[in-house]
C-alpha cells in the first residue's frame, strides 16, 4: 500500500509501555488526525514514523518500503512541529533549502554547511533556488526570503516551517500540533492552507491535534488514541455519531 503503514509498533521507556502494539495506515492522499489525551503516546508515534526514534518492535512502511531501520533523511517524510525550530542565523530562503541541501550531502559534510554557502554545481544550486521559490510561493513567503527568523511573526515562522516541509515533495507529512502556538484567527486560516498543501502534494498526512474542531473539520479519518493504544479509526462523522467505545465517546464528547 502507498502512504504510511504502522504495524504492531511497540515502544517502552524505562520499562513502561508507551506504545502497546500500534497499527495504523494512512493512504496516499489521505489526511488522518491523531487525537488523544496528553501523554497517550502521540508524539512518540510521530517520532518513530519520522525516524527520530526507533521502535522496540513492529514495522513502519512508507510507500510499501520498510523504513524501520532507515535514518530520517532516507524516509521521504517531512515533519512539522509545534516549535518551528528554524535556524536563527539563516535567511528564510536558506531555512527552506536545508532539507534539499541535506539530501545532496553525506553526514560528514552537513554540520559545517549550516550558515555557509550551499555547495554543489551551479545547476544544483539553481535547482535548489527554484524549489525554494515554488515552496515559498505556495505559502506566500516570496517577499520574505531574505529575512531572518527573528524578523518574522509567529505565523510567518510557522509558514517557513511548512515551506521547508513541502520543498522535498515528501510522500508523507507528519505534523505534531503545528498550529498550537498561533492565535485563533491565524489558526483557522492556516488550517485551510495545510489541507490545501496536503491535497496538492497528494501525500499521506498524519496530523496530531488536541483541538477537536481541527480534527473533525480537516481530516478524512480520525484516529483516537489512549494510553498507548489506538481505540478507533473512522470518519469524523462516525467518530462523533457512532463511537465504538465509551472511552472514545468520552474523549470526543459525543452524545452517546
Ligand atoms: P503525547 O504526545 O500524546 O502527549 P508523548 O508521546 O509525548 O505523549 O509521551 C507519552 C509518554 O511517554 C509520556 O508518559 C511521556 O512521559 C513518555 N515519554 C516520551 N518520551 C520519553 C522519553 N524520551 N523518555 C522517557 N519517557 C518518555
Ligand atoms: Mg505530544
UniProtKB/TrEMBL annotation:
Mind listing the UniProt keywords for this protein, alphabetically? ATP-binding, Cell membrane, Membrane, Nucleotide-binding, Translocase, Transport
GO cellular component terms, semicolon-separated: ATP-binding cassette (ABC) transporter complex, substrate-binding subunit-containing
The ABC transporter domain extends over 4-252
| GO MF annotation: an example | ABC-type transporter activity
* Top-level taxon: Bacteria
Would the keyword Ribosomal protein turn up in this protein's UniProt record?
no
Q: Which residues cross the membrane?
A: none
Question: Which family does the record assign?
Answer: Belongs to the ABC transporter superfamily.
Query: This chain belongs to which protein, by name?
Result: Glycerol-3-phosphate ABC transporter ATP-binding protein
Task: Give from-to of the shown chain within the full protein.
Answer: 1 to 256 of 383
